[in-house]
What we know:
Elements: E1 2-11, E2 14-24, E3 29-33, H1 40-47, E4 55-60, E5 63-64, H2 69-75, E6 76-79, H3 91-101, H4 107-117, H5 133-145, E7 151-155, H6 163-180, E8 183-188, E9 200-205, E10 208-214, H7 215-221, E11 227-233, E12 247-248, E13 252-256, H8 262-273, E14 275-282, H9 286-298
Parallel strand pairs: 3-8, 3-9, 6-7, 7-8
Antiparallel strand pairs: 1-2, 1-4, 4-5, 9-10, 11-13, 11-14, 12-13
Bound molecules: adenosine-5'-diphosphate (ADP) and magnesium ion (MG).
Amino acid sequence: MIEARNITKHFGTLPALLNVSFTIQQGSVTGLIGPNGSGKTTLIRIMNGVLGANAGQVMIQGMNTSQETEKVLSICGTLTEQSGLYENMSGRDNLLFFADAFALKCPAERIDELVELLEIQDYQHRKVGTYSTGMKKRLGLARVLLHRPSILFLDEPTNGLDPDGIQMVLRILRRLNVEQGMTILISSHVLTQLSAVCNDYIFMEKGRIVEKGTEQEIIQRYQSEPRLEVEADMPNGWITGAFSPVAANSHSATFQLSSREQIPQLLRQLTESGQVYQARIEGNDLESIYFAIREANAHE
Ligand code: ADP
Ligand code: MG
């Protein structure tokens, strides 16, 4: 388990993180989502113990990251935006070099495993300088997995990748999570790319956490006043007792409800007076909610 307690970080007088607290359960994949400058990289560096906080602490499996940094780093792998790879060496030689630095036992076997997992067989002997961004990202990932970490931090791993590259990285991360139970934290300024792989989210804005939880928890929290868009045949029009639409034409209408509980009531009334073909709750997907959260915080 990872626990951040009241992390505050200032650079000079400027606050980069303000009172940030959260818990990450073992085996989860968490998306750390926020625009540029919201504090994601700073937070990851503090979680790794490579940067000190002004206040608060991070505990990883019971260890304080600022006090037991070495031990923490031995169970964590971190892929930063700078790959830290040597461009004039081959991919495989890079891995051999870092395996040596970690004093890894049986480095060749471990490297073979990773080369296969990350699908870099075909170009492992080519110089890294000739790699595409996606290839470098995968080699970088192999590098941080060398010492078999059980926790993986990835700072904007999909940045600069094309859609195929993004899918490939996400597929590998899913595999690491499912097959090895790896706990994964992925930062990104784009929510859409991560929704296929994350089960938990932390939304950041200007150094603060503005929302967190599982996708379902977040959706439930914002679903208090749902809008229902209905496609139906209503021979006697859309007047349905307590409900009247905010917009309507002959075959569809939108209803503004005051609570979730009204959804089944409205649907019951509609089906009693006509044929309902489709009903959709508007704005209850994570993307729309995130957009609304960002809007709300932009004015603060
Ligand atoms: P993100 O990764 O979400 O884009 P960062 O953590 O990089 O955000 O930055 C958060 C804030 O802290 C920004 O305002 C940034 O300018 C500032 N910052 C980050 N690192 C430093 C640093 N080493 N020195 C001064 N300011 C920094
Ligand atoms: Mg960053």
